[in-house]
Amino acid sequence: MMKNNNYKSIIYKAFGNSLERVPGKTLNSYEDMAAEKEQTPMSELNACRIESAIPMDECHRDQTRFDELLRKYCDLYDFAPVGYYTLDKKGCILETNTTGADLLGFEKVDLIQSRFSRFIAPEFQDVFYFHQKRVLVGTSRQRCELKFIRRDGTRFFAQLESIAVKDAAGDFTRHLSAVTDITDSKKKEELRRKTHDLSERVKELNCLYGISKLVENKDHSLAEILRGVVDLIPPSWQYPDITCARIILDGRTYQTDNFKETVWKQSSGIFIHKAQIGILEVFYLEEKPEIDEGPFLKDERGLINAIAEGLGHITERIHLEDSLKSAYDDLERKVDARTAELKRSNQQLQRETEERNRITEDLRTTLDMLRENRERLIRCERLSALGEVAAKITHEIRNPMVTIGGFARRILKTNQLGETNKNYLTIIVEEIKRLEGILTDILFFAKPADPTCHMVALNSIVKNSLETLRFELEENDIYLAEHLDPQLPMLCLDENQIRRVLHNLIKNAMEAMPEGGSLNVSTRKNHNWEIVEIADTGVGIAETDLNRLFDAFYTNKTTGSGLGLTISAQIINNHGGAIEVFNREPKGTVFIVKLPLRSPANQLDGAKTVRYVDKPDAN
Questions:
Q1: What pLDDT, on the 0 to 100 scale, is given for residue 395?
Q2: Sign of the alpha-carbon dihedral angle for 101, 106, 112, 118
Q3: Would the pTM count as exceeding 0.85?
Q4: Dihedral, CA of residue 91, residue 92, residue 96 and residue 99, to nearest 10
Q5: pLDDT tens readout for residues 277-314
Q6: CA 287 to chain centre
Q7: Residue 513 carries which DSSP code?
Q8: Which of 132, 194, 282, 527 gives the lowest tally of CB atoms within 10 Å of its CB?
Q9: Left if phi > 0, otherwise alpha if psi is -120 to 50, otherwise beta: which for 16?
Q10: DSSP 410-434
Q11: In the prediction, which pLDDT does 69 show?
Q12: Hey, what domains does the chain have and what are their CATH numbers?
């Protein structure tokens, strides 16, 4: 303990006086300190040694130890991971370490007497000005975040931490600043924010998907659907543990088990034809920070409006179904009454019997039409509601997804990533590309584009479609046979949309032949149609799947949106054409696309565009 105290005394007495003689001078290295020490008068060192009564050899050892510690300190300062700067009253750089020079892309000597503000981006000059003001009037450390400009013009975010240095009289002499590069942390923070936003959108989609599943079940009553919807709402909000919900509709109330009215409320009216029939309310049970609409997110406003609008459509549809059922029951009663009356009259006139049979048959036909119309109406209402909601949510998801994909691709282009991170980023980019394709299909399905037609050769479209997939066909060991009729006349078509249909059908055929096979593509003219036939030798289509093949979102694949054939049918329908599909013997599937020789405007409305047949039509 005595030896340590002597060591501290030697450091203070041997160097303290010499340092006091040069106020304001900063020692940049161990050599500067050694040179300064050599200037100390020998008389002072001798006096120090005599005063402390320490032998000369022990003093020399302590001095050597001090020199080693000083050298280590200078190295630690110079190569610290933070850039250090000493600025004078005018904001000019008096001193910096190696890290500080490297951050700005200069040599240390080039930075001396340079204004520190010249390395700060123009849009952050005001921030730096007020930061200096706070440093001059305060006694504690001041922090701010700025964007700096390097010598080569590149920019980076950094945290600036400064403190004023004053003399004994309290006058400002200089201030010390430390600069830490926070560019990576800023990027991570932005990525975390976007990931959080995407997570919120996924919760919203899960809620809407759950509602659609409730609606799809025809056995559910309106009350059961509303009870299910009210339970799906809390997990979709930002704070699910403190969220409760209530639906008031047609004088009845449906609410979560933890429901309680509070001041933190979000609501949306439920309307049918602009007449309010109910209200949807969401409450927070605890106070949360103010965001967009009180403690609620702006996107949560869009979600509650979408749910309320959907509930209006669902209620209207169920009311319509009830009305149709009532009309159906009433019609059945009338049929039975009329049938009984005809039976009583059967003994009188044969003519009346025949008339009764005719009326009965007409009524049965009417009932069949009513059933078919009801099913078609239900399906259209579902698809319409689902399409509108899917389009809204798709637009909300697409923007952050494009941003995430852009950042991932930009990071992937850098050479500073390890092989593992590159693989992860490659997977992210590929998955985002797949999701973007699914979102594109959903948007096209929700809002199909009208065809922009011009005169074009059908064979040219077929050839271009095959050419883009020729490499994949060869890679998958699939033999391609083309039989194109050279005498086909020009058609009025939207070339891009027809190419999309052919591309989808050919890709489906390729996926049906994972072990290779043959693909036959042919064109021909038949009466008022030009026909494209695509036949493969794949696994074929199950009979149970044929009737649902063109239904939206129906697929037996592990990937994809289930909209490819639905969109293809929409496109061909808009061109006034038709699609036929059947299984071929001994194996495989044949798709036939029929396009009219006349423009779609001349086609009869209401033509059936999708057919499922056991063998090719003669026409």
A1: 60
A2: negative
A3: no
A4: 70
A5: 899 999 999 988 888 788 888 888 888 898 988 888 88
A6: 29
A7: -
A8: 527
A9: alpha
A10: HHHHSS-S-HHHHHHHHHHHHHHHH
A11: 79
A12: 2-78 (no CATH), 83-181 (3.30.450.20), 189-407 (no CATH), 454-612 (3.30.565.10)
pLDDT in tens, 589-614: 899 999 998 765 444 333 334 444 44
Question: Distance between CA 396 and CA 282 in Å, rounded?
Answer: 21
How far apart are the C-alpha atoms of 531 and 529, rounded to whole Å?
A: 6
What are the C-alpha distances in Å from 575 to residues 192, 443, 463? 46, 20, 20
Residue 608 has phi, psi (to 5 degrees) of -75, 125
Structure tokens at 130: 């007020």
User: pLDDT value at position 384?
Assistant: 63
298-345 helix and 222-232 helix, angle to the nearest 10 degrees: 170
- Whether 515 and 476 have beta carbons less than 8 Å apart is answered as no
In DSSP terms, 249 is beta-bridged to 252, 278
DSSP letters, 36-64, are HHHTS-HHHHHHHHHHHT--HHHHHHHHH
E-state strands within 354-426: none
Distance CA 173, CA 217 (A): 79
Residue with tokens 């890290």: 99
Backbone angles phi, psi at 339, to 5 degrees: -65, -40
Rounded to whole angstroms, the Cα distance separating 222 from 206 reads 20
pLDDT at 23: 37
Rounded to whole angstroms, the Cα distance separating 443 from 355 reads 53
- pLDDT for the residue numbered 19: 33
**CA atoms 372, 377, 380, 382: torsion sign:** negative
Give the whole-angstrom CA distance, residue 563 versus residue 437: 11
Indicate the SS3 state at residue 552.
Answer: coil
Q: Which residues are registered as beta bridge partners of 149?
A: 155
Please provide residue 384's backbone torsions phi and psi, each rounded to the nearest 5 degrees. Answer: -65, -50
Angle at 538 between CA 532 and CA 540, to 5 degrees: 85
Query: Between β-strands 517-526 and 478-483, what pairing exists: parallel, antiparallel or unpaired?
Result: parallel
Q: Which residues pair with 522 in a beta bridge?
A: 483, 533
Six-digit token pair at 272?
Answer: 């049918």
Q: For CA atoms 215, 220, 226, 232, give the dihedral sign.
A: negative
Record the tokens describing residue 224, joined without a space. Answer: 């059961």
CA distance linking residue 307 with residue 305, whole number of Å: 5
382, 390 Cβ separation under 8 angstroms = no
**Cα–Cα dist 448/241, whole Å:** 40
Q: How far apart are CA 98 and CA 80, in angstroms?
A: 8
- What is the predicted pLDDT for the residue at 128? 92
Q: At what angle do helices 42-52 and 56-78 cross, to 10 degrees?
A: 120
CA distance 281 to 220: 23
Please name which of 523, 522, 501, 503 lies closest in space to residue 511, comparing C-alpha atoms: 503
Would you say 177 and 164 are in contact if contact means Cβ atoms under 8 Å apart? Answer: no
Residue 153 C-beta-side C-alpha neighbours within 13 Å: 0
| Cα–Cα distance for residue pair 525/528, rounded to 1 Å | 8
Contact yes or no for 506/519 (Cβ under 8 A): yes
Regions of the chain short of the pLDDT cut 50: 1-45, 47-49, 601-619
195 three-state secondary structure: helix
Instruction: Determine the pLDDT at residue 206.
Output: 80
Closest listed residue to residue 148, CA positions, set 78, 76, 83: 83
Task: Give the three-class secondary structure for 573.
Answer: helix
